[in-house]
UniProtKB/TrEMBL annotation:
InterPro entries: SAP_dom, SAP_dom_sf
Pfam family of the protein (one): SAP
Native organism: Tuber magnatum (white Piedmont truffle)
Domain of life: Eukaryota
Keywords, comma-separated and alphabetical: Coiled coil
SMART domains: SAP (SM00513)
Gene3D superfamilies registered for this protein in UniProt: SAP domain
Annotated SAP domain residues: 1-33
Name assigned to this protein: SAP domain-containing protein
Coiled coil: 115-142
Amino acid sequence: MPTLEELRKKCKAVGLSAKGNKTQLAKRLTEAGGPCPPSSVESEEDPMCDAVLATKGNIGCEGEMTIDAKVTLGLALDNEELEVQVVRGTVYVGNRRGLDFAEVREYFRIIDAEITSLKQSKAALEQRSTALQEQYKQVRERFLGTFRRDILKNATKRDYDIIKAGNVTAHGGDVAVDALLYEGVHGRHDSRTFIELYGMTPSDAQKIQHKETIQILNTHAGVRADTQKNGSEEYYRRFQVFIERFEQSDHDMNYLEAVPPTDLTRAYWDLLNCERYEDSTIV
């Protein structure tokens, strides 16, 4: 319920007498505006509404704009119909242009809330992604350690500790992630292990973004680390030729589009079409 002072101000605003108690003033306002049935937008929690009036004014200096705004707003109040509208649970009363601005205001509130929610979701996903990355790095560490233990026969205590620390083991290459394991002071230092698997150093491997080349390197690592089957000598020979041609081309990433085909292009297709294992077909 409005206060006595608020009712007096409303009476004065519409040219009515501001004398009397709250009941008299409320009755005077109701009679001046016609019958006023109970509103469906009343709220017991917040009995107040936002009054919004908007119009266009001329652009000029600050003083002129202020005076013009007072005039045009007064004309809008005198000549335009006022409406009541609920926007996202908030009650507004005003002219049509003012209510349009109220809708925009509420729209931005919704957008701000959604942005905040998305930021929170993004932070949670990044936190989970970081945890998963660390877990996957441990899986890749076990792949390298197992290769040293089972194939190279030169596993270190660190390799054995890593192998024992988990029960998830990778069975194929992942040159991009494995190369990252050699970064920093606490990274791996057995570059020869990496070269045995991928044919190049970790630092060179990090420069490669070409999908087909990455797949070739990962496939070789999987064959090289396989403890159940032996890679064919011809496959290993062709892989070595591919690596040599790749290095000679200064790591050209466009060799599959080369016209005419280059030595690197031919080396790629020769390797791709080669039997990987002894006494087997291409897999």
